[in-house]
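Subject — a protein and its fold
Encoding — discrete vocabulary of local shapes:
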Amino acid sequence: MKEFFIDTDLGFDEAQKFHGRVPTEDDYDLVVDADEVDDDFRVWGPANMFGERELLAGVARKVFPQDVYDDCVKTMMEINHTSDLRTAQAGPWDPDELLKKFGWVEGEHYKFKGKTRNALIRKKKDGTWDTVSRGKAIHSVLLGYKKGRFTGEVELDAWSKKNPEKQKTFFDMNFYAAKSYNFIAPKEYTNQVMFADKYIKKENRLNDTIFTTMSANKYTENDTSMMGYHIDAGDLNSSLTCISVFKVGDFKGAYFILPQHRVAISVGDGDVFVGDSRKQHGVSELEGPGTRLSCVSYCDTRMANVK
């Protein structure tokens, strides 16, 4: 395994200024490309006063057996769900585009919520304002177990209930993703195992792994081409996020970027990426005719009170 050491750290507060922005090449100084490294690798942050370095990210190469790989790609290509609730990830709205495309005028048909233009609230037909903020629709669907917004009960997502056979594909994928997580980041993996064993019911863990929930994402040049800077909600402070990546066709870009450390990582086809989602992170623009499929697997700490 190869090791890379990063000494740049803008600081957490400075990195917060990136929140909701579209990632660009100005946000990083170094690209660690899995295909160029051609080996498993880890990326470490600056040393603290004791000489210890924080693990920022890592990649396990070519993880999946061919049958599991093929099932994952086929199943994820068939999922066309979109979400307009992930406002930071979707990037900012363009008022000129809203006017041209929908005839919407700011203040009359909608208003922005917060300091950025990532979330807007629509005016309803009765003249009152909606209570739900909306972002641009992105190709992303939550899979696995979640805590119901209104009931507070842990339940399986709607897609998985309707597609039990296809759901098995993701369960199989998570077996290999979890093994890769343990290989890249054994300390953080152990922390997550201890948390899951103590607080998460076994029936709410995917394929008896540490994961409870997944987010399946599809990137294409003409649709969802990037992921805006954000911090993942519900992740354990002492653990990392695990992402399985599949590439269909030929494209450039789609780097995972940590602007706080000015580093970008290009994940290869069939690789498992492990990274720190508690810091601002995003995925840069995809350029080309191909499709990038990614499945984020994590343990949702918001279900911890149900044991």
